[in-house]
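Researcher: Next entry in the queue.
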Amino acid sequence: MVAYKSNEMMSSTDVAKNFGAVLSKLSNHEVDKICVLRNNKPEAVVLSTLEYEHIKDLADMAEHIGLVELIRQRKTADKEKYISFEEIANKIGMKI
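Model: Structure for this entry, 96 residues:
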């Protein structure tokens, strides 16, 4: 669970009224994120573009690592259980 400091939480009303100030806090690195509260419950998070791109890059990297691991597993799997892409393509009538 993500923890938020008191200066990182704002009601949706306050965010709407002070959106310029919210953007300034993010761009000046006063805060890393703003948790937007609706009915006193976290509803959304506002991030700087730089922070969002960093998170997206990490997520993409994790996806690539997962694919590499899947390839490794398939390469080392029991050859009797292994089904090649070509075999699957043939079974469904796909021409490659």
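Model: The mean pLDDT is 87.
Researcher: Noted, moving on.
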